[in-house]
Write a structure and sequence with these properties.
heterodimer; A: 280 residues; B: 250 residues; four-stranded antiparallel beta sheet
């Protein structure tokens, strides 16, 4: 224990001795491996497609994304669908965070009823398929509440993802040292202020990575709301595939669009993490 | 030894008992009274219930039976009473427990603004004054992780003092510190003692007890074995267990 710092310096000097010569830092080897792997993947895809006798018609795809005629830019069906997808995910994301937080706080509360209700909700939402929940909300709950299919989709998605988010919040909260609660307690902070100023700011920083994963899942899971005929991007693609038989072209295209959105989101969160670095 | 005048009783502890769920009895029919401006040092072997006693005083632990009255307010089920008592007692922990996501200054300002509803300007001024007093005024915008253990503990003392508490509880405040940092924290505590702060200190620092304490309590197995002035306690202990303990640590 006592010679810890000494061992550390030892380690550092060892590392500096075994430093790799400068020229080999060029990632030549990495690039070769990358090209090799990508070639393999593309070969498998093309081979698979050709064995099926698939006839690629990529040139027909752009018109379904957007069109540009007579100087007028028009969104194609896919981007129209993307607008709905973004609309659904944006609202569901906020609701997911809220539902997750409230559920986590209820599970950690002193109230027996609160804990019980939160637990029941969590187990039901987490242990049944999203597609069943979508049907349930749309056919059973929506008529009672008088909500349209778009909001039914948002509600079902938020309830489903909120259950996972609540466990993420809870793990962040209970991971904080007990001393943080005790310090706030001894200063006379109310429970509300303790959560608001001491616990949640630390807990949320800790759970940003898993919360981001959950948000990415939400974006992709939004494609499932096509089952209740909400015309988001996947629904548009389904409809176009039925019409044009451009199966792979269209599905790969929307996969690419989902990828762009989720990578963008990950980058924004990475930026946030750097800005709010945790001081531990 | 000390020239200050002790006041009336501020804390009455009557026959409190506390058994943890694992069956360990931390406090066994424990009673004591503490006067205003009194500095009480609690010593005893580990597991004797010293820390539990402190933690029961401000409600961090629940007592099973007995009664604690602080400045006329009973520490009972009433949430308002509990909050009131917590706000009048400062506590300093072995592990400092500073808020890592806030700067030194924010740590000290937080409770003043939230609990005492002081304005930003006022709580800032009070905090700067206290940080100067504990010798951290040049690091107010640092984060706790950037400070040494001794500095962190001095910030923690300033944070507790910012609430203008009537009593300060020190729970082994120097036990987690490197030896060369113990002195700087004890100096702050001694200054407080001399200024007339009512203090209850669980500590292993017998020099501190001899220098500033008005009363020393020796605890074992959840009871007070012996209590007395530092002079009496260290030079003329009566009980065998006290003598044994002192012989082991002196």
């Amino acid at each position: 224990m006592d010679n810890g710092p000494a061992q550390n310096t030892q380690l550092v000097s060892d590392l500096s001795k075994t430093r790799i010569p400068a020229f080999s830092r060029l990632p030549v080897k990495d690039i070769i491996i990358y090209i090799f792997v990508m070639t393999g993947i593309i070969y498998v895809i093309l081979r698979g497609a050709s064995e099926q006798g698939y006839h690629w018609q990529w040139y027909r795809v752009p018109q379904y994304i957007f069109s540009f005629e007579d100087g007028i830019f028009t969104l194609g069906p896919l981007l129209q669908g993307l607008k709905i997808t973004l609309h659904i995910t944006w609202i569901s994301m906020i609701l997911t965070y809220l539902i997750g937080l409230v559920t986590a706080l209820l599970r950690l509360s002193d109230s027996i009823v609160g804990r019980f209700v939160a637990r029941i909700y969590l187990e039901v939402a987490r242990n049944t398929p999203l597609i069943v929940q979508l049907f349930f909300v749309y056919f059973v709950i929506a008529p009672v509440l008088g909500i349209d299919r778009l909001f039914a989709a948002i509600l079902a998605l938020s309830l489903f993802e909120g259950a996972y988010a609540s466990e993420i919040y809870r793990s962040g909260i209970v991971s904080l040292p007990k001393g943080q609660w005790e310090a706030a307690h001894s200063l006379g902070l109310t429970g509300f202020d303790t959560y608001r100023k001491v616990i949640l700011p630390q807990a949320i920083r800790r759970v940003l990575p898993p919360l981001t994963s959950q948000t990415i899942s939400l974006i992709k899971d939004s494609s499932l709301v096509s089952v209740i005929a909400v015309y988001e991007m996947t629904m548009q693609a389904n409809a176009l595939v039925a019409e044009t038989f451009l199966t792979f072209e269209l599905y790969f295209t929307i996969a690419g669009i989902y990828l762009v959105i989720t990578v963008f989101l990950s980058q924004v969160v990475a930026l946030l993490e750097r800005r709010f670095r945790v001081h531990h | 030894m000390s020239e200050k005048q002790l006041g009336d009783y501020i804390i009455n502890v009557k026959n409190i008992s506390k058994t943890f769920p694992n069956g360990v009895t931390a406090l066994d029919d424990f009673s004591t009274n503490i006067r205003r401006a009194e500095v009480v040092v609690v010593i005893g072997p580990s597991g004797s219930g010293k820390s539990t006693f402190l933690r029961c005083l401000n409600g961090l632990e629940e007592i099973d039976s007995g009664e604690i009255i602080f400045d006329g307010i009973p520490l009972d089920e009433n949430k308002k009473n509990r909050l009131k008592i917590r706000r009048e007692m400062g506590m300093v922990f072995q592990a400092f427990n500073l808020f890592p996501h806030m700067t030194v200054l924010q740590n000290v300002m937080l409770a003043q603004q939230l609990v005492r509803k002081s304005s930003k300007q006022v709580s800032r001024a009070v905090s700067m004054e206290l940080l100067e007093k504990v010798g951290i005024d040049d690091k107010v915008d640092s984060y706790p992780i950037q400070l040494s253990g001794g500095q962190q503990q001095r910030v923690a003392i300033a944070r507790a003092l910012a609430m203008k508490p009537k009593v300060m509880l020190f729970d082994e405040a120097t036990s987690a510190l490197d030896p060369e940092m113990i002195g700087e924290v004890l100096d702050v505590m001694k200054t407080l003692a001399r200024e007339g702060m009512t203090m209850i200190c669980v500590t292993h620092e017998l020099g501190f007890a001899q220098e500033v304490s008005d009363w020393v309590i020796f605890m074992d197995e959840g009871r007070i074995i012996e209590g007395g002035t530092a002079d009496h306690f260290f030079n003329n202990p009566q009980e065998d267990r006290t003598k044994l303990f002192l012989s082991q640590i002196l």
